[in-house]
Amino acid sequence: MPPRAASACVRALAPVLLAAGSTLLAPPALVAQQRADSVRVAVRQDSTARSLQSVRVTVTREAARTSFELPFAISTAALTQRPALRRTGVSDLLLAVPGVQVQDRANPSQDQRIAMRGFGARSAFGVRGVRLLRDGVPLSLPDGQTPTDWLDLETIDRVDIVRGTAAALYGNAAGGVIDMKSRAPSARPFAAEARVWDGGGVRRRNVQASGSRSDSSGLWQRAAWLGSFTRTNGDGPRTWSRLDATSLFARGLATVAGTRLELQGTRYDAPRAENTGALTAVELARDPRLPDSLNITRRSRKAVLQSQVALLAERDVPGGTVRASLFTGARELDNPLPFAIVAVDRRVLGGGVHGAWRFARTAWPLRFGAGVDAQRQVDERSNFENCAAVLPTAPATASCPRPGTERGSTRLDQQERAVNVGGYGRMEVEAPHGIFASAALRYDRVQFRVRDRFVTATNANDSGDRTLGAVSPMVGLAWRATPRWSVYANASTAFETPTITELTNQVTGAAGLNTQLEPQRTQTLEVGTQALLWQRVRADVALFRATVLDELVPFDVPNQPGRRAFRNAGRTSRAGAETSLRAQVGALEVGSAYTWSTFRFDRYDVGGASFAGKPIPGVPEHYLQGFVTARARSLFSTAEWTGASRASANDAATVYGAGYAVWNWRVGLSAPRVAGVRVDPVLSIENLFDRRYASSLVVNATRNRFFEPGLPRRVSLVVQVRWE
């Protein structure tokens, strides 16, 4: 690790060590009064320790359970405990989660990249390698990709994360699972709030309303609703980074004849999100606000219209719970890129049924869970020549027959389908002395189909089909040594298919499916421990080692700017350690997470070059995040930091992104309520010391444009008004 990067990490770590150390060494008398578990996700108390409000999760597809009984590395981000979050990206929600790195590209046309244990770092857009859900409904498509631009983050209340392989429960993913939980409606008949955020050339306004009503005498016992409207627009922090977007989210809940029902709907309309592009090292050092000039010349941007509706049902049955979901969605994308104009019309349909039971009459209690998931995606995809740079006075050509018109001749016209069907079963034995032994098995079948509609005398029919499937087993053991301390271990496998975009982006530019690109397969061994100390300090440590066969590696196609293709590396190895610490003493709350990652190519040849022993690009070896929040009556102040060591930007490890340390700071006031109305102003400064750095790397980029700059210093004002 270079001295500068090490120094940056030490400087960022120092406040955490000081605050956490003072908490750990404090006498019990100073910490006897329990405020609550600092990462509490439910108010239900643990049956074995009434004084302990333990972390309970449903991300493992069971009834809500304490994480001390589960053989997984599980984290929970309780967002209500972090005041005045910006909620402008998933990075705000996943701060200080060990093993998770969210790379903000400061580019409204590109989603923030989520990498979990390095899986997902290959993503050119959207999320790869990690399964995303909202209230248990898949956000990830059947081929494994997840666009996140359309998510309504204003209504997310908490996030549950399984770090590491969970393919035995969820299928096609190697990195883990992120389940976002929606905010509960107000318990009052009506409540409303409005929030205005303005800073760095971007404005965001959100209005929410919700309410509840009970009627135990009728068919339904309880009904509740919540609605959210968000408007975001502005020129953005960089040249050519304008965003204009509107989002609507609504959910209705009711308990009818003992069945809990929920209906959700989302509508997202972004007619303009400009693609500012990546920079060279020289440009980054000169001015991180610069754009890629080619992106301006070709007017690179996107327009998105997306909607989704989901129906969920849950009912308690003898000994357990059964859940079912049905969802459908549509996405329209117009995406001018430097190499072409991409147009996609997508339709998605899916659903699932899951059950979990506990049998306590046996000598050792048994738990059993099983479920089936099915999802179908149909994309109507067309590519056109990008003629934005052709002047109206230029002569007509075959590629640009109408000079002055942006969309030129057709390059590709095809229908792409992906269908994923998977089923799983999980069995657990509750042995004496707090031992929980479990095993799970899942089978997935993913079918890809392309129908080429652009067939001419010089363009052959590239239609094709591929079916990829795998069995993913997992065994785990958890020992709850005390009500507040547990140790676990697991061995698991996962398979991850290329997305349909990765399968169809071929080096030759041909349509159809890349028959040479294989799914990557992962084998993981993991051990870990978690503890709640003195009811005020929560600690988590996980160690893992994974071997990946045929890892999917991205690279820019030479002489075709902005166009990515993929290939398989023979074998890679990943070893890492993840630690987190949360502590609360009086009015001071501290959280930190440190991740050590050593990821290497074991066998990887490209042409005549061997990259064996080189680090996997895009992932720093050392990554640290944390926050400190201090409260004094109605005032609060929060400092957040992120520190990372350098990371390679290409397979040959000849180009590196430098290490960095970045600080954010917020101060706010919770004013007294007057006539049921409360006004909370917040002042925020991001990148407090205006550090120039690359928050994201474009792996194996061409034209030396490896670096996507982090946000420059940005001062913003947030005002929130609540009424109930």
Based on the model shown, name its key terms:
single chain, 724 residues, mainly beta, Maltoporin, Chain A, 22-stranded antiparallel beta barrel, five-stranded mixed β-sheet
Give a verbal description of the structure:
This protein is mainly beta. It has one domain (3-401, 408-723): Maltoporin, Chain A. The chain is 6% helix and 54% strand. It has 6 helices and 37 strands. The strands form 7 sheets. It has a 22-stranded antiparallel β-barrel. Strands 3-8-9-6-7 form a 5-stranded mixed beta sheet, with no helix packed on it. It has a two-stranded antiparallel ribbon with strand order 1-2. The longest helix has 22 residues, at 3-24. It is globular and about 80 Å long. The model is unreliable at 1-53 (pLDDT under 50).
Summarize the model shown:
With 724 residues, this protein is mainly beta.
CATH topology: Maltoporin, Chain A
Based on Cα principal axes, name the global outline.
globular
Strand element count: 37
CATH 4th-level superfamily: TonB-dependent receptor, beta-barrel domain
Radius of gyration: 25 Å
Number of domains: 1
Percent range of helical residues: under 10%
